[in-house]
Amino acid sequence: MRGWIATRVQAAIAAAASLTGKRFGLLVASSLVATSAIVAAGMTSGGKDLGPLAALVGRSLAAQRVAAEAPAPEPEPEPVSEPEAEPEPAPEPVASTPEAAPVEVAPEVVPEEPAPEPEPEPEPEEEAPPPKENKPEAGQIKHVFVISLASPGYEAAFGPANVQMPYLAESLRPQGDLLSNYKLLNESWLANSFAAVAGEKPTAESEADCPEYEKCLLPVETLSFPDQLASGQFSWHGYYEDMADTAGKPANCVHPEPEATEAPAPAPGGYSSVLNPFVYFHSLLDLGDCATNDVPLTELEKDLRKADKTPNVSYISPNLCNAGVTPGQCPEGAPDGAAAADAWLSTWVPKILKSPAYKADGLLIVTFGAVNPVPNADPTQPPTPPTSLKTGTLLVSPFVTPGATDATKYDPYSLLATNEDLFGLNRLGEAGGKKVKSLAPQLLSENGGD
């Protein structure tokens, strides 16, 4: 825990160092508000439900309060001097008759008692060692890569007929385990993303992909899977294609200003905060985790070179064009929709599969965070909502059976439960439901992949 707190503090310092002016003031103010919220909640609930950070802050505050309320020792009373006794009057002399001289007797010699030996000072008691913390441990899978795209529909993605993503369906699918009955909660990005990273139920705002950024910011008490990873001393990164600041330079954790009432419209085909769920969590924004770990996609290739530089969990998202979002997100004349997403996969997936981290203990999850609406025959009319939320999801790993198919019902809550189980973490929100299925048991089986 001490190591985790130090990591979080260093992350906050690093985040503050990267900010200036107004953004620095906002980070400091939000950190104070976040800490106050954690302390208040920790003192009322005993820290049982707010994670390790809330419990630690609550205990620290309680210890300080007890020390402050301890009564000061009362001063000892001054000794009262007793009056001196008056001397008794000397007796009057009495006349005596002469007597025989007394015989002198030698005084009795009394042997001196030996001085008592000083008692040995007690040896100081050794302090009991602090109890060991139950640190979560990962199983045989220690590096997870999650790619999220827009789905053209199950058949268009995986076939067997009318396949629009040939690399995914024909080259990658034979290497992995297809979850043929994976369904989204609805067609929007953020509702499914919040469920997959925090177990959050969809809301009216998230189902509309949060047009007002401020209304979708989740309070600091709402923890995410990256919060759990940091608490367990695991590493994570989010990698986002074309993420840049207002000047067009690559930047970390790009999101609308906290006071903005509406999220700015993204450039066609570029980066959008809608594809980046972590910028909506105060728990990640306020202590600097987002500013440190939410980075442009260009960092991924560098991090893949060595296993010890590759995060335990990597969330990877293309830009709006390469994620397969339609219509009108790609340059004129270039592939768009499912074709653009498939071409992007054929470029980046081989880099992941060749990395030392994947070869040693990796799992690649190609999933979908939204469903594309069906274009209307009348271009003046809006697209038709999808008729099915079935998208499928593909798992590729040395620990799965190549070419396998799993028809069990799964959803974004199952994805979160699986990732939490792989790293020995408790389940968040709806992922802890009794009916939620996790893939971890078969992935952690020693016979996996045979």
What does this protein structure show overall?
- The chain is of the alpha/beta class and 450 residues long.
- It folds into two domains: 2-47 and 57-64, no CATH class; 139-444, Alkaline Phosphatase, subunit A.
- Helix content is 34%, strand content 9%.
- The chain contains 16 helices and eight strands.
- The protein has helices spanning 2-17, 21-45, 51-69, 154-158, 166-172, 189-198, 204-207, 213-216, 225-231, 282-285, 289-293, 298-303, 337-353, 356-361, 412-422, 440-444; strands spanning 143-151, 177-179, 236-240, 294-296, 313-317, 362-371, 393-396, 404-406.
- Strands 4-3-5-1-6-7-2-8 form an eight-stranded mixed sheet, with helices on both faces.
- α2 (21-45) crosses α3 (51-69).
- The longest helix has 25 residues, at 21-45.
- The chain is elongated.
- The two termini are 38 Å apart.
CATH topology of the largest domain: Alkaline Phosphatase, subunit A
| Overall pLDDT level | 80
Class from secondary-structure proportions:
alpha/beta
Q: Regarding CATH, which class of the largest domain? A: Alpha Beta
Number of strands: 8
Q: Sheet bearing the most strands, described?
A: 8 strands, mixed
CATH architecture of the largest domain: 3-Layer(aba) Sandwich
Structural shape: elongated
